[in-house]
Amino acid sequence: xxxxxxxxxxxxxxxxxxxxxxxxxxxxxxxxxxxxxxxxxxxxxxxxxxxxxxxxxxxxxxxxxxxxxxxxxxxxxxxxxxxxxxxxxxxxxxxxxxxxxxxxxxxxxxxxxxxxxxxxxxxxxxxxxxxxxxxxxxxxxxxxxxxxxxxxxxxxxxxxxxxxxxxxxxxxxxxxxxxxxxxxxxxxxxxxxxxxxxxxxxxxxxxxxxxxxxxxxxxxxxxxxxxxxxxxxxxxxxxxxxxxxxxxxxx
Amino acid sequence: xxxxxxxxxxxxxxxxxxxxxxxxxxxxxxxxxxxxxxxxxxxxxxxxxxxxxxxxxxxxxxxxxxxxxxxxxxxxxxxxxxxxxxxxxxxxxxxxxxxxxxxxxxxxxxxxxxxxxxxxxxxxxxxxxxxxxxxxxxxxxxxxxxxxxxxxxxxxxxxxxxxxxxxxxxxxxxxxxxxxxxxxxxxxxxxxxxxxxxxxxxxxxxxxxxxxxxxxxxxxxxxxxxxxxxxxxxxxxxxxxxxxxxxxxxxxxxxxxxxxxxxxxxxxxxxxxxxxxxxxxxxxxxxxxxxxxxxxxxxxxxxxxxxxxxxxxxxxxxxxxxxxxxxxxxxxxxxxxxxxxxxxxxxxxxxxxxxxxxxxxxxxxxxxxxxxxxxxxxxxxxxxxxxxxxxxxxxxxxxxxxxxxxxxxxxxxxxxxxxxxxxxxxxxxxxx
Lengths: 251, 432
Prior knowledge:
Chain A is an alpha/beta fold.
């Protein structure tokens, strides 16, 4: 298993949000996690990435055989975990180039590879920019500063391309995207797909899943996964909404 | 109190202090001496409450000052001057444009008495630092650029404190940039050894109509240094002035920049960066006086404070009646990295005209946690992420430095300083 989550509970400011998550993801699989607003989808991604505002109260998470919960956020990244942020952060004054070079070289150091030369790095940037058609003048700017919503999301996928993670978590990557940007972003994700890397797509709409087709679909509700099925579940949710799930779990 | 000891020192050595001074200066010294003796505001005199040695008899150092220290910046050549404690040494063999004068102030007083007298103290700040300086300063740098002249390279003035016992040094620089002339002056403050130092450096700058002047002041001294520095500037119509005060390391630093915008269309860009650690105290006081219509000023000061360091920013913008179409923008941003670091920010606007655009913004906070997490989530270690955020914050102050080599050098020094590494100049003979 690439990722194994066992009975994970987590809270923020004393309020329990995740109430016993169990989830296993194998190599090469695409999982969708759907659910109504406030069900804990973004909390799950933040806990996996290591955001310190969230406190894990019980449970285990194993990533490539390592105890993920004991690792610092940067160690999780170097080990191959990537979170595409729902709201990417603007960092005035830190150029995209310096930011990405620091990140890529930390990853290379972890793999015991030498740092890239300036020339090699810029070549790599050029190649990866193509994947999401990211404008060159965006990579000359400060990280996300003044980027439109769509540009920020493309920038997330560009960073994913640069870092080549084994597990990518796309947190509401479709929110705020028009139809063209959605297509470009999802094509980017699909181009980066390899038999050994896996993806978790967090969304509450069907439309992204028309492009990034999941193998397994989970429904998260009130901090638990209440239903797991194949991709046919997406259509069912689209047609009937979430109310029937709520009824089934006895609300 | 100790100030009285300094006053008696002057009285005992009056002849030595006044050696070579014209009568008007001797008289001005007496007036300042009286002002110090009468001064009621003790807070102004705080810096002078410790007993340091002075050098009234102008004893020359046993070493050759030029061999003790050189402060070179890779990539540029400068016209180089050294103020060794309190005495100015010029680099020999210079070919300057017609009419340009650059020499030790003591020499200028003897050779160009009228020129010195015409400008001296015309725009003084009338505070304790001015009076103290006027009484005790015997030397410094004198620069005169006649109309429409310009230098082909920056002037670099190194102020060096060098002694093996507690020492005070007082120096006075007078810089005259006539109409249409252009100059860049880079002042580097350094201190040698472990002993206690106090300096009072006063720089008067007169910038004529349409002239351009850049003044950079970089301090890289040590914890034992108390550095009191004043730059007073007056700008005539259409003059453009840039100042940047960068404090990389010091003990107690007080930078006072006083500017009179006296001509229409004059523009001032006034900037500063302070990096505080340990128990350093850094204060920047700026006083910008819009006296006429249509002058503009932009101001940016930033502090990064760690340890138990303390920062103080006081920024006064005064707009006189009738100084319409004034534009004055002031920004002060500060990062406190530790719980014990303290920042005091006091923006002050006094506006007596109607048609003006003035604003000020001040913010003090910590590094952005969201940005730190974002970077960490990309594999960047927390310490590197903090470094990237701090250097981005600091570099903004360097953006408008007009000498590329100085900007590059400062980036490197700031980077080393923020990483907690040694950041001494590679070519400095003291640091080796």
